[in-house]
Design goal:
It is built from eight helices and ten strands. It has 265 residues and is α+β, with helices and mostly antiparallel strands.
Amino acid sequence: MAWYDGVADSNFDVDCEGQRHTICWSNGEVLLTHHPDVQAEKTLVALGGRKPRCLEIFELWELAVSDGGFIEEWAPWYEADHQRRWWLKTALERLRSEGVQDFLFDLSRERAVRMGEVVTTLPHEFLDRAMATVVDAGDRRGWDFAPAISRHLSDATKLRARRSFVRALSHQRPAIPNPALLPFVCHVDLSRESAVEGQIAGRDSRIEIRLHPRWLSEVWARGLAVHCGRFTVSISEEARNFSLTQVEWVERNKRFEPRLTRTQL
């Protein structure tokens, strides 16, 4: 199953050629609703024609998934932050005009300009899907990312795992008070299987989870990080049947202990 199977479509409108046109992400691809033949549009531009705004955005998407440098800016932000985007636009203009690089510090100035255009143009939902595309491709290649991107993906996994884990605990019955305050550690490990250990027992609570960063594309990007009220650590396929490995909390001796359980999708 491709990571994008079952992922909801996403779209946004742009001003293009004096009209409002729609850019759509669907089934792993970006589609230009009002420019169905992208290759023909590129040919016209190569012959001297004016590049439509829709095509500029399409090329930004292609650049994002081939470069991946935008992940440095995307990783710390769980959801869209309009104030942050306003600041990024200002920082991008300063980078262009003055050469001052206030963001995307791991990138060269030239790449920072290109990735700055990506993160200030594509909606956050598109960046989520671009990230999953990058992670899936890198995982298929054997996780050959540069150390900087690997570090940012690790940080992104930890942030999103914690947010998802707290959300899953809010569904626990009997209720667990203040799940966001529980000591939680997420280890990101390329070489070991996903696992969970610890307990929920008042002041003695501790939770440790180990995840592969492919969790971002296989689970989180699919909207399966919390499914049926449980936190999902991985997804597997056998004979076209898909199952989730999830954390279930079992009450024992006035405390909750975790165990991994399989849920058919």
